[in-house]
Structure formats: structure tokens, C-alpha cells
Amino acid sequence: MSAPESLPINLPPVVSAIESPTPGTVWHVGNGVTITFLGLADVFHVRLSFDAGQSFMQIGDVPGNPRPPQGYSLPYTVPNHLTTQALVRVDAINTVNGVQQRATRDSGLFTIAAHK
Which residues form the domain of 21? Predict the structure, then answer.
């Protein structure tokens, strides 16, 4: 009797933590920052809000790995949009049998301030 074939494990997407930015962080216009997070997905969509999550702009996609959970990063230049209500959202996306699965995590509010 032969050994059974290994079957793929279709794990749901996860964003387990956003490590940067953290709530209360201050980003300065024009500075380079790195958005870092932990997760498990085929791809991650990273978005930025200036109004506490009422609307978002896409700032990048990060290719993922469906297992095991890993750390990811996305370099970004802070835009000239001053606010105390900034928020990063990371969406983890998997497609299994043609069906898209999604998990989302927000960073918590932080500030975008004038260039120092």
C-alpha cells in the first residue's frame, strides 16, 4: 500500500499584527517609513486613510505566502496630507477554489505632521 498523497491545506488569510505604525506614532511629510506586519495570505493589500477609516487609498501590494505566517514590510514615503486621523489597513487575500477570502487589520490612529 502506498503512502497517501499530501493534500494542500487551505488556511484562511490572517493579519495577526501591524507592527508599524503603532497607535500614536508621528510620521513626517516626505520621510521614508516602513509599514511592517505579520500575516498569512497569498497577497496583502496595504491602504492608507487620512480620516480614521472613512476612506482609503491603495499604497501597495505585498506578495504573501499561504503558510507559515511571516513578517512583511512595505517601504513608503509619507505624503503631504496633514492629519491626526491617519490609519493603515492591511487586507490579507487568499483565493481558494475560485472563492476569495479576506481578513483585515487596522493600525490604530496616528499622525502625519509637517516635515521636520
Answer: 14-113
